[in-house]
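User: tokens in, sequence out, please.
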């Protein structure tokens, strides 16, 4: 595998060609904040928090590093006054979208941000986002990992949101919960009760399959999906011990 060598804060590091700077930096122990990144899915650069300073040749620029490829000879700086100032501004914007998120508030305080100067207008649909910061992680994991593509961005500008088609209940959602697992602000709302798995943000409630003792195992639709992608026989779960 072809390797590239560069520096992060003056430290010589190495990465596989095609790796991004953020994942490489974290492998070497450098802390860079991010709310929209997960190593299992395609980088998107939505939250803008992973800003770093990168020098390439004689040019230096501030850029997100989750979607910046590790290149031979570049010089990366992960923290200085300029970077902190820009991250603080980004956190003010995010705090306006997710004012009650403990995760966002904790990160904002680390950069000296306790309140936001930005306010959402009364009646703005973003008021209904319940701390959603439009990072797109839920949609990416649903498409790239689960293989269902039940979620996507809808609308534009202030009307932009994430959900099923036309922001209605995503009918293809199998309630696997992967979206809730990766959500950086816990805005989706994951719950199991009365024999159902509930994803509140999507208004999705699906019945659970149970074992021989009546304990919930997984949503029936999730098991059907696994059976399909694994090429299992139609009656596989009926034959499996304790499956219902």
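Assistant: Sequence out:
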């Amino acid at each position: 595998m072809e390797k590239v060598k560069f520096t992060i804060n003056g430290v010589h590091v190495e990465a596989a060609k095609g790796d991004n700077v953020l994942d490489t930096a974290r492998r070497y122990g450098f802390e860079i904040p991010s709310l929209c990144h997960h190593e299992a899915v395609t980088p998107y650069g939505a939250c803008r928090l992973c800003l770093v300073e990168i020098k390439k040749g004689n040019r230096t620029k501030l850029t997100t590093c989750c979607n910046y490829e590790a290149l031979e000879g570049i010089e990366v700086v992960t923290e200085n006054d300029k970077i902190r100032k820009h991250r603080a501004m980004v956190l003010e914007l995010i705090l306006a979208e997710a004012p009650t998120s403990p995760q966002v508030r904790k990160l904002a305080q680390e950069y000296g941000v306790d309140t936001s100067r930005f306010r959402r207008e009364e009646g703005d649909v973003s008021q209904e986002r319940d701390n959603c910061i439009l990072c797109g992680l839920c949609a990416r994991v649903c498409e790239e990992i689960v293989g269902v593509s039940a979620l996507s961005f809808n609308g534009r500008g202030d009307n932009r949101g994430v959900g099923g088609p036309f922001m209605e209940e995503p009918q293809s959602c199998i309630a696997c919960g992967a979206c809730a697992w990766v959500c950086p602000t816990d805005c989706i709302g994951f719950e199991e009760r009365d024999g159902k798995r509930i994803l509140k943000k999507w208004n999705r409630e699906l019945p659970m399959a149970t074992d021989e003792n009546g304990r919930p195992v997984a949503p029936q639709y999730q098991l059907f999906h696994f059976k399909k992608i694994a090429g299992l026989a139609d009656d596989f779960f009926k034959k499996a011990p304790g499956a219902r």
